Amino acid sequence: MLGFVRRHVLTAYSLLMFAYLLLPIAVVILFSFNNPSGRFNYTWQGFTLHYWQNWNAIPDLWNAMKLSLEIALVASLVATALGTLIALALVRYGFRGRGSTNLLIFLPLSTPEIVLGASLLTLFLNV
Question: What is the per-residue pLDDT across 39-96, written as a single tens digit (0 to 9) for each?
Fold first, then answer.
């Protein structure tokens, strides 16, 4: 039994983390079926399909959604191609700007943690 737990604890933890990350999207989808009595949609007041009956009735909205999906597809393909080529260059070849290129790739990944650390330092120093 302990071996089964050891083999699957990472899988269970990963699934829980993905569920936690996808929970806000699920709440937004759920509240799109809410029937609020006023302008604000903070509490559940009843199920309705009223807002989804004519979801594509506005032509400009439909065109904007199509354009957004096209841009997302092209950006994803370009980013994947460039990322793959840069990764191959960093792993296979030693060139003059290799360290700085690696730093520039890693910098956007580490920036949120640096900002969080600086803000927590300010918080704890004030407390």
Answer: 888 888 999 998 888 887 888 888 899 999 999 999 999 999 999 998 898 889 888 9
pTM above 0.85, yes or no: no
Q: Return d(Cα 47, Cα 29) in angstroms, integer.
A: 12
d(CA 104, CA 54): 46
34: β partners? 47
Which DSSP letter does residue 34 get? Answer: B
Q: Which residue has the tokens 């009843």?
A: 46
Q: Taking the domains of the chain in order of start, what are their residue ranges? A: 1-55
Cβ atoms of 86 and 97 closer than 8 Å: no
Q: Which amino acid, residue 12?
A: A
